[in-house]
What does this fold into?
Amino acid sequence: MEKPTLPKGTRDFGPLVMARRQYLFNTIGQVFHKFGFLPLQTPAMENLSTLTGKYGEEGDQLLFKILNSGDYLKDVDLSKLEARNSRLVASEIAEKGLRYDLTVPFARYVVMNRHEIALPFKRYQIQPVWRADRPQKGRYREFYQCDADVVGTDSLICEAEIVLMIKEVFQKLRLNDFTLKINHRSVLDGLAEIVNAGGKEADLYVAIDKLDKIGEEKVREGLIQKGFESKSLDALFEILNTKGSNEQKLNLLSNKFQQSEVGKKGVSDLKETLGYLKFLNANEQHVEVDIPLARGLSYYTGCIFEVKVNNVQMGSVSGGGRYDNLTQAFGSKEKLSGVGISFGIDRIYDCLDELNLFPKETATSSKVLVCHFDEASLQYGLNTLSQLRSAGIASEIYPDLAKFKKQVEYADKKKIPFVIIIGPEEVASGQLSLKNLESGEQSKQTIQQIIQALTP
RNA sequence: GUGAAUGUAGCUCAGUUGGUUAGAGCACCAGAUUGUGGUUCUGGGGGUCGUGGGUUCGAACCCCAUCUUUCACCCCA
It folds into this structure.
């Protein structure tokens, strides 16, 4: 008999972990709801045609594909099989795949249900996604995303509200040391004009995104290798290395972008977004304009966000941005702009765990265990149990006739704070023994008194 | 996809230059204690040393392959 194992990069979530994960899901879901977002769920699997081509070449390779049912090799072109090129064969034997993120299925949903959706449409979605990546710290093959997106409006109020939601979620989780980085694709495009990127924008963005991680020297090296001129890079790094307040950075950018229409647009969008924060009675605490911030997903076109928890060795815990043409990829004639945010709950979990920030209460189970000594008191206990539950008290009974010691040990292990002890004495008098396992206190009370004592 | 490390009891780990029957702590079970848990004491169960092959008189230890987990790169939450 082989020992069972889990597929690489997947995990079970036991009761303790689940209690904590629920706490995260609930916290995030409540914030989304408060900002007017309503829940949506979509299938774990999508047609492969829905998924491919949306995440760039790299993303396509990370898609989990699902083998067709039945004799899936039967009709495959023999020449393709003989070529032994799995890519050629893949499209013929797999027409479904596991979702890679929640944004693309959302866009698909919007296009399919356009007739009954009131714009702007705000939805949130908390579901697992799958990536055929190689697992490492903070990276799993199955993980949950908590997304909130709004489509059908260009208003930058949405961007400002995303900033507010991020701030509120982390505040509620008592994760106070974080940085919400914000940038704009048009700012990056402006930079590309300055260095004459001409077609190599993607290389440029990927390279400068790593600035704070590997330093200016390495980034320069990388860019020169990609064919950028060393001279043009000086102007670039002068901008990228700007320190100071958000206002100072944005002013410098407007200065540098006097010749760049697209650059100006990026700066004004960022200014407007930050301006809305004031009207919403919020401030720029934790918010940092981060000029090198690029983010990988190729579909972003406007503001982009990323959240980093400070003093923890962990990639970004949240990210998002505005996309202009996602629904166009599904044949929508109308141009629907959208903006969204995604919280990576598995990473947030790891951060909270590392920083010891989970509230203690997330561990509790039943409030009380009914213990007994013989057949008669067990039977009596069942009636007691039913009364406790009618009163809304989470309770359980030890289901076997067992030594009292064993029953209390069970309560102890499950961190059940109270036991009710029922023996012949209690059955006769109706005065049950209630014991507080934490303090050791014990007293005789009627069931009504106990219910009153245990009702919060 | 590229590169590296790791794997011994349920968990954390010892295990000498290759040499008798592979150990400890914690956890688990039982008893001390037949109506009182957490503490203590006593005893007990539990290992194909990741898997498969090879070298050797002899392998947990050396070699090869494979899988797992972890870390870095690429990319990403």
